[in-house]
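User: I'm curious whether this sequence folds into something compact or stays loose and floppy. Could you predict its structure so I can see for myself?
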Amino acid sequence: MGIVSQEAILELQALMDSVEEPLNITFQNVHQGFRAETLVRFLKARDWNVAKAHKMLVDCLHWRVQNTIDDILAKPIVPIELYGAVRDSQLIGMSGYSREGLPVFAIGVGLSTFDKASVHYYVQSHIQINEYRDRVILPSASKKHGRPITTCIKVLDMTGLKLSALSKIKLLTIISTIDDLNYPEKTNTYYIVNAPYIFSACCKVVKPLLQERTRKKIQVLPGCGRDELLKIMDIASLPHFCRKDGSGSSRNSENENCFSLDHPFHQQLYNYIKQQSLITEPAQPIKQGSFHVDLPEPAAEETEIAKSLESELQKFEKGNMLSKSTDGIKIDDD
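Assistant: Here's the prediction. I'll summarize afterward.
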């Protein structure tokens, strides 16, 4: 790390030393003892501009306090049937670890429907997974390997991606904005697998809009990505949709489905949240109701990407309709 980088870290650290309660408490939940690494994440997200990184980090801490994010791991989604419905329609899970010790998260982009609960439940679930990753999984991995592990790997399955993705763009933009503003630089690499033609078309439009540091993190792998991913992880950690070509679906596989509520990751996560709820409010019955978080206004970049995606998907739809309308039409040579 260069001298300029070290100077920026020290400058931001001095600014954060003056942060008072309750921001300091929530900052501890953010850095989990890895303060320098956390400062670096926010500096990277603002191109090493100390003033902008400081504002971003303080804004993040205010967001956490205002929305009681520190308590979100004590707020289970109940009843379990509702949580199961969220899991069935928001396909995400943890399949294992890379050989370097980074958690591997699998995301079924193409087959996630987000149609079984309100937006707030999906946002709640997403933030809970983020917080469980940052407060439980990453500290545990760091302790095991004897070094800071503060990022993860994400494998995005595009199986089943259809034009109906238009209806998901708004929610996905909200979730993406929450991550960009409050969980920056937590993903080391995005691996995209099982990409259909429609994704390739959208990718050509969206990729130029992404910041360079984000573009460098994205790798589109051929087919299910099995051979490439096995270079960085054991087969036991490979997401089920990467196990073999033509595995068919993010939702069903002969291999263990890491999206399923029965998967050890989701069982551990849900049990952890239930236990935390009993510790914090032992005398109170667990009530149904989503944990409302202020939904952020998407940044200009996020809005532009969403608009470009929507436009490209609409073009693709029109092209498909035109192609179908000409099918079977015979043109005479006369």
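Summary: The chain is about 50% helix and 10% strand. Residues 119-145 form the longest helix (27 residues).
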